Amino acid sequence: MKLTLFSGVFLGTTTTMLSSSWFIAWLGLEINMMAIIPLMMNPISQRSLESSAKYFISQAVASSTIILASSWNWFISGQWIISHTSDNFSITLISLALLLKLGLAPLHFWLPEVLQGVNLQMGLIISTWQKLAPLTLLIQISSNTGLKPILIFISVFSVLIGGFGGLNQTQLRKLLAYSSISHLGWIVGVIFLSPSLSWLTTLVYLTITYSTFVILIELNSTKISDLMFSWSKTNWSHSKCILILLSLGGLPPFTGFFLKLSISNELLSNSLISMTILLMLGSLISLFFYLRLSFITSLLLTPTNLLIKGSWKTHHHSNLLNNLLFLFSIFLLPLSPLMLSLSHISL
Amino acid sequence: MLLRFVTCSCRHACLGVSWMRSSPWRTAIHTQKVACRTFSNRTFRPMKALSANMALLKEEAMDKLLGPDGIPLDIYLLRQTNVIWKFDDENSLKKWEVSTDKEIGGKSEASISLGKSGRTLLFQGSLNTEPARDGKVRYSGYSTLRSKRVKGSFGKSKHYDWSPFNVLHLRVRGDGRPLMVFIIVENFFSLHDDDLYNYFIYTRGGPYWQDVKIPFSKFFLSSRGRIQDAQSAMWLDKVNGLGITMGDQVSGPFKFEIDFIGIAIDPAHSEHFAYELYGKAK
């Protein structure tokens, strides 16, 4: 049964990413949503049911808005093709619906609550795989000039909300939700200038977020106080956790810095100076709480102060994919010129 | 009915309505005190409420910037214990409400007051297990002490975040009768409105205080008083309140004194949930 549902999630996203018609794209989004709802409810508890219900409501509203707006576009222009969407009202409505699907401010209220109610594995899927389909559609319609002011506003607002929302959070899943809002704000800020750069930065963001979730699953940590005691569990995962948090915060020389550097370069070369300043200020707030989290993980409690029962150190079977993605999420910054040239991006 | 000028409590001359009852046997004129409906009263109360709520919102925003629950994060993470409820004065009693089976026609009684020292809460009364004779109620005899919901600005519900802690610590003194302590957590569906997480307190009786420490993993789920087959661990990040029920099916007086209710971390306790998480029989 789980295999069928995971296939549905995969099928829905790939259908949307490969389609050129609004109807097929909407179909893919619906298949994806219907398949992931039962997966989110496992294991059944009040909070997982609550998260599934909230996720369903937000995604269903967004999907129905998309089909309404695309139907209106067909009525006006006779076109179902995504790249030929010309009606401004339809494009605005579709972009707002896609922003709701992505969980960007000011339509972000569902994301922290939903992530908090599901387990870390489902949180990983919601934060990474589920972003691909809406981002694909957003990139395809981003060339419309009417969207530029909306995207700039959403981008800055998301980064600021992501920064202030994650401040003083004690639950790691909520913190990663606000991190997702902040990072997607950066990506959406460059989407209308350079779609290929937004794709590249999306891949970088997904790699770092995937590695973060994998490490939290290894440490079985859902709150900050769990990270405080993680040194006694597995030393290697504990060290990885510190590095990945710094990378997520965008600190050089880690990979996360590439995301902010490349986007800032693109924005400055297009004379969007105030937007860049606001994005950087928002990121400084995020960096503050990532640094604090790294401090709490590494230095707050000394290893000699054994306040908890020691755990059995069992042999940990390492996964090649996870380790490779972890390396990419930490040490990819020196290869950034290569990545930019491979993506045909010139800064 | 007569329309005439009356003087209301705020000494404004208002146009009021009064009922005049007259009959061959009574000549008394019955007048009603008319509420003053001047412009200032109509707009003043909402403005007062708005300014009070804005002050609360500002306080919440400042607390959010300071740290979780308004406490700096490093202190929040390093603290081992936290007293949630203590009973220093009469105002602390206003955070609690008492209910008995009188709601369903029973005859139990209960009340709360400050203890002799003035620093404890005394929950006392008498249970009566005789059910109401309405043909519907079969069992009776309970008294409950429950904490009130904390509201934030604009009526927003506020929750306690007990997730860093794993033990409920109460310092109590009873009369030897067992009680049940329950925790109310936030729910989304109205189906779960009556869901509670329960555990027992066995009091020793006598003059000595007892420290009751119950790990949160021991609390089991019940709904409308019935223990659920599908159990799940309590989520401690959104706790709405706590309550204590006296309902041991024995008629007679009871007394239960509480010094404080708090939460603590027991580093030796690593259990997540104490009960079997099997699927329901089909």
TrEMBL record, chain A:
Q: How does it sit in the membrane?
A: Multi-pass membrane protein
* EC nos: 7.1.1.2
Family annotation (InterPro entries): Complex_I_Subunit_2 (IPR050175), NADH_DH_su2_C (IPR010933), NADH_UbQ_OxRdtase_chain2 (IPR003917), ND/Mrp_TM (IPR001750)
Can you list the GO cellular component terms from the UniProt entry?
mitochondrial inner membrane
Q: One GO BP annotation here?
A: mitochondrial electron transport, NADH to ubiquinone
Top-rank lineage group of the source organism: Eukaryota
Q: What's its catalytic activity?
A: a ubiquinone + NADH + 5 H(+)(in) = a ubiquinol + NAD(+) + 4 H(+)(out)
Domain named NADH:quinone oxidoreductase/Mrp antiporter transmembrane: residues = 19-286
Q: Which GO terms describe its molecular function?
A: NADH dehydrogenase (ubiquinone) activity
Q: Where is the NADH dehydrogenase subunit 2 C-terminal domain?
A: 287-340
Keywords, comma-separated and alphabetical: Electron transport, Membrane, Mitochondrion, Mitochondrion inner membrane, NAD, Respiratory chain, Translocase, Transmembrane, Transmembrane helix, Transport, Ubiquinone
**Membrane-crossing residues?**
20-41, 53-76, 88-111, 149-168, 175-193, 199-220, 241-259, 271-291, 320-340
**Top EC category:** translocase
Instruction: Give the subcellular location.
Output: Mitochondrion inner membrane
Q: What does this protein do?
A: Core subunit of the mitochondrial membrane respiratory chain NADH dehydrogenase (Complex I) which catalyzes electron transfer from NADH through the respiratory chain, using ubiquinone as an electron acceptor. Essential for the catalytic activity and assembly of complex I.
The entry sums up its family as follows: Belongs to the complex I subunit 2 family.
Q: What is this protein called?
A: NADH-ubiquinone oxidoreductase chain 2
| Gene name, Swiss-Prot/TrEMBL | nadh2
TrEMBL record, chain B:
One annotated GO molecular function = unfolded protein binding
Q: Does the keyword Chaperone apply?
A: yes
Please give the SUPFAM superfamilies that the UniProt record associates with this protein.
Galactose-binding domain-like (SSF49785)
Q: Where in the cell is it found?
A: Mitochondrion
Q: Return the InterPro entries for the record.
A: Galactose-bd-like_sf (IPR008979), NADH-UbQ_OxRdtase-assoc_prot30 (IPR013857), NDUFAF1 (IPR039131)
Domain NADH:ubiquinone oxidoreductase intermediate-associated protein spans what residues? 85-258
Keywords per UniProt = Chaperone, Mitochondrion
Q: Which GO terms describe its biological process?
A: mitochondrial electron transport, NADH to ubiquinone; mitochondrial respiratory chain complex I assembly
Please describe what this protein does. Answer: As part of the MCIA complex, involved in the assembly of the mitochondrial complex I.
- Indicate the quaternary assembly: Part of the mitochondrial complex I assembly/MCIA complex that comprises at least the core subunits TMEM126B, NDUFAF1, ECSIT and ACAD9 and complement subunits such as COA1 and TMEM186. Interacts with ECSIT. Interacts with ACAD9. At early stages of complex I assembly, it is found in intermediate subcomplexes that contain different subunits including NDUFB6, NDUFA6, NDUFA9, NDUFS3, NDUFS7, ND1, ND2 and ND3. Interacts with TMEM70 and TMEM242.
Record-stated family: Belongs to the CIA30 family.
| Name of the protein | Complex I intermediate-associated protein 30, mitochondrial
Which organism encodes this protein? Answer: Eptatretus burgeri (Inshore hagfish)
